[in-house]
Specification:
Jelly Rolls; six-stranded antiparallel β-sheet; 11 strands; 3 helices; 27% helix; alpha+beta
Amino acid sequence: MESPFHLIWKFIMARIKTLAATSALAVLALAGAPSMASAAANLIVNGDFSSPAIYPNWALYPSIPGWTSETADQIEVGASPIYGLSCYTGTCQNLEVNATMLGAVTQTVTGLTASDTYNFTWAYGSRPGGGPQQLDVYVNGALKAIDYSNASNYGKWKFNYISLTGLTSAKIEFVSVDAGGLTGYGNEVTAVSLSAVPEPAAWALMLVGFGGLGAMMRRKNSLAAVGA
């Protein structure tokens, strides 16, 4: 009859072999999902308006990386607290569409696949003291959303989400509309993102990988409990 020590040793070795096999499965599954990782990448350049780095100040520029003005206005970026808002992104910077007048700030993304679906998201901030504001959001000239700012939402960020299909390129436009407030003050934007929706097969591959990692962790905990 085998000793208790020998039985415990066999149990530990068997668990180590199972753990190694599960780890290999998880690594292979995750390594096989680069297409999903790349598809989920943000296609917008400078979507958090962190360039140029201006925090904790603000400034006006003729243009900034990724973005241009379609009016005679310049592009204003600055630290979100200056505009009466919390830090929405890690760099704590945002665009103010109304720099010195009612503005229109745009970026065009090319190389999209018409058969793919894309998630278009952004955060809209309401600046206190600017009076009523309106921001129209266009994609390829089509109005997709309208954001409003008034006393009811001053100092707050609002997350926006739109699903887009059938695109080979996307011209993103944030356009200020006269709503009776200060024309050179308000309509804050940050965290702009355009990313492809992963294919179902990629999701399944990732789930297999995460499932393998979960099983690995559970077995590791069991192994630790046996050896305690």
